[in-house]
Amino acid sequence: MHDLRALREQAVELRAALRRRGQEQALAPIIDRAVQLDGDRRSTIQAVEERKAARNTLSQEVARKKKAGQSADEEQAGSRALGEEIATLESELAAAQGELDSLLLQLPNAVLADVPAGGEESNTVVRSWGEPRAASGVAPHWEVGEKLGLIDLPRGAKIAGSGFIVFRGAGAGLVRGLLNLMLDLHTREHGYEETWVPVLANRAAMTGTSQLPKFEEDMYALSTDELFLIPTAEVPLTNLYREEILPEAELPKSFAAYSPCFRREAGSHGKDTRGLLRVHEFDKVELVRYALPDRSAAELELLTGHAERVLQLLELPYRVVLLAAGDTGFASAKTYDLEVFAPGVGKWLEVSSCSNFTDFQARRADIRYRPADGGKPRFVHTLNGSGLALPRIIAALLEHGQQPDGSVLLPEALRSYTRTDRLT
Fold first, then answer.
1. SS3 readout for 256-311
2. Alpha-carbon gap, residue 108 to 316, rounded angstroms
3. Catalytic pick from 79, 353, 355, 386?
4. Which domain range does residue 57 map to?
5. Are residues 86 and 169 in the same domain?
6. Tens digit of each residue's pLDDT, the chain (424 residues)
7. Rounded to whole angstroms, how far apart are CA atoms 250 and 269?
8. 73-84: buried (b, 16+ CB within 10 Å) or exposed (e) per residue?
9. List 21, 51, 133, 278, catalytic entry
10. Is 168 known to be catalytic?
11. Known catalytic residue at 350
12. Which long-range contacts (CB under 8 A, 24 or more apart) does 39-45 make?
């Protein structure tokens, strides 16, 4: 969410930021209306204060006249009239504030200056690691997974519908091994606090991290209880300190959590639907950091490096892609995507997005810190990244590790977790 003062005083800069996203024309009417409503709101607040002051003066005059045994009918009538005006104005004020809040929730974050303008075609590969395996002779992961009895897509569909997976035998062990490797790495070597979080979140929590209202159609909801199945552990982790003020000395804070994740993937019908590339429920280890504003740029590089380390241990060649403004998520100010190459399907697969949200989420969730010098509380900066998401990682492992005898060789770092060096 944007600061009202910034919206009022820096509307030109906000329009420029939206232009880099390619959204200025679509969102300009929202900015115009928000600026107008903010002006009306401030005028109404002033009018209410003036009438309350006048009513207080009349109330004092009523008390004086009654004490003196004089009639105060005129003053009482005036006070009642002012009360009615105040009630009308406060009703108008509430309506204006409600509309203004709704409009502000529709405006995306402003991307940082080093984010390139343009859409997906302007994304930039900033570095790469490892050499992708040649695609020749490599079978797609769903064929390997089915042949080795690791993945049972038909029974997953029978239970819950397409886009839901059953991992079996060594496949289930692979899932467990990957999760344990990631959590051990991030907690023991990278200093994250391991956290176990609910998989349900309320509307306030989902709004705080910007999933709502924009992406409500992508959520699985329990309408009776006004709860949502989380699309990522980012939601509960970021909301741990919603509506709280932290001491500056406690920053940065860092959390790692495993959770199942649920996404309808609305609009994705027919796109990458085979195998594990696009599913409705998947497992993920999420990384979330709270940072001081002047440290969030460096924190993004740190967090991205932590996610990269997982890929290096898994011996999966990858590239780091800086997303252009038009391809950057709604709440993000800057995002790196980590992509691994899957030779069996011949595609680069996104396995992590590492983002700096600046104070955008913190404003929505009211997460602040008190400076060490005792100054006025300020909003923290929040960051998050997948560390990592499993389905596509498993797809890449099954395709990169294929051997001539049909088995799949596992990376050395994973073998102590799976208790085997290969899947057969």
1. EEEEEEECCCCCCCCCCCCCCCCCCEEEEEEEEEEECHHHHHHHHHHHHHHHHHHH
2. 33
3. 353
4. 4-104
5. no
6. 788 887 888 888 888 888 999 998 899 999 999 999 999 999 999 999 999 999 999 999 999 999 999 999 999 999 999 999 999 999 999 999 999 999 999 999 999 999 999 999 999 999 999 999 999 999 999 999 999 999 999 999 999 999 999 999 999 999 999 999 999 999 999 999 999 999 999 999 999 999 999 999 999 999 899 999 999 999 999 999 999 999 999 999 999 999 999 998 754 455 566 899 999 999 999 999 999 999 999 999 999 999 999 999 999 999 999 999 999 999 999 999 999 999 999 999 999 999 999 999 999 999 999 999 989 999 999 999 999 999 999 999 999 999 999 999 999 999 999 999 999 9
7. 45
8. eebbebbeebee
9. 278
10. no
11. yes
12. 39/8, 40/96, 41/93, 41/96, 41/97, 41/100, 44/89, 44/92, 44/93, 44/96, 45/93
Domain boundary among 104, 132, 167: 104
Domain count, the chain: 2
120 is catalytic: no
Is residue 112 one of the residues assigned to a domain?
no
Q: Which one from 355, 363, 392, 399 is the annotated catalytic residue?
A: 392
**CATH number, residue 248:** 3.30.930.10
Last residue of a domain, one of 51, 77, 104: 104
Instruction: Check 92, 350, 407, 415 and give the catalytic one.
Output: 350
Structural contact between residues 37 and 96, judged by C-beta atoms closer than 8 angstroms: yes
**Active site residue: 263, 289, 364, 368, which one?**
263
Active site residue 176: no
Does residue 278 carry a catalytic annotation? yes
